[in-house]
Amino acid sequence: MACAMLGSFEPKGQRMDAHNKVCFVAGAASGLGRLAAQRWSRAGGIVAAADINEQGLRETAASCDSIRTWHLDVTDRQEVEAVVKTVESELGPIERVYGCAAIQPTALLLDQDPDEIHRVMNINYGGVVNVSLSTLPRLLERGRGALVNFASIAGWIPTLHFGAYNASKFASVAFTEVLYHENRGKGVHISCVCPSQVDTPLLAQATSKPRILKTGPKPMRPEIVLDAVDRAVDRGKFWVFPGAHTQAAWRLRRFFPSLMWKIDHDAEGF
Predict the structure, then answer these.
(1) What residues are paired with 67 via a beta bridge?
(2) How confident is the model at residue 4 (pLDDT cuts 50, 70, 90)?
(3) DSSP code of 93?
């Protein structure tokens, strides 16, 4: 048995071919990364779950005998390369990569510690860069597999209190889009996932309590995001905007940017 307690986390319309294949998950200690690791295991796959939070990793791997864990600081380029190399040596070639590592502390930019702003960028964007550059060349060499980078609708829509997070996700969106176009037609699928707020522990990091979190759409369930990812990989789609309200927000930002700012200012009261 790969992973017990299927429950509501079982993918709907499961089509991903995970059986005996290796999935590398960066940011697997909680949230979307944890669920992605457990779903791959439940589908009969082998998981390399990596994160800096070792207690969280142990919880992710509980009752899942096909999940192996590795300590990983995604901001450390050499450590990422070393862990990826070890994973392939011990588990076999990586077939799918999930770049999920992220933090989301919030504040008005002039109130936020500059070191924290840089830390957000180093983890959220630097982690995407390090994981992508360590794994994608291996996938390309074999001519198969998938790289799934988790960005956010915050990578399209700037929002009060989320300036540092926005900057990191804008950078992740741009990096992943260029990476995709530079490697089209080489047998490896690349996706950029841009959900709106998701019901994961990341929400608790919004310590400045942005009012838009209360006035905006209800956070979506994480399994909705991963169902959308599975469909995108299966259909060869690059952009993944899970949920109808995510797609609507993207269109509003594109065509009515002033309206989006008015909604945000009205919510925050300034």
Answers:
(1) 47
(2) low
(3) -
Domain spans, the chain: 13-268
Tokens 């008005």 label which residue? 108
Give the separation between CA 47 and CA 41, rounded to whole angstroms. 6
DSSP 63: T
CA distance 109 to 202: 19
Q: How far apart are CA 72 and CA 93, in angstroms?
A: 19
Whether the CB-CB separation of 40 and 64 falls below 8 Å is answered with no
User: Which uninterrupted H or E stretch holds 67?
Assistant: strand 67-71
Q: Which fold has domain 13-268?
A: Rossmann fold (3.40.50)
pLDDT tens digits for range 156-190: 999 999 999 999 999 999 999 999 999 999 999 99
- Cβ 35 vs Cβ 222: under 8 Å: yes
- What is the SS3 assignment for 111-148? HCCHHHHHHHHHHHCHHHHHHHHHHHHHHHHHCCCEEE
40 close to 96: Cβ distance less than 8 angstroms: yes
| Pair 127, 26: CB distance under 8 Å | yes
31-42 and 222-235 are packed helices; what angle lies between their axes, rounded to 10 degrees? 60
Helical axes 126-142 vs 114-124, angle rounded to 10°: 10
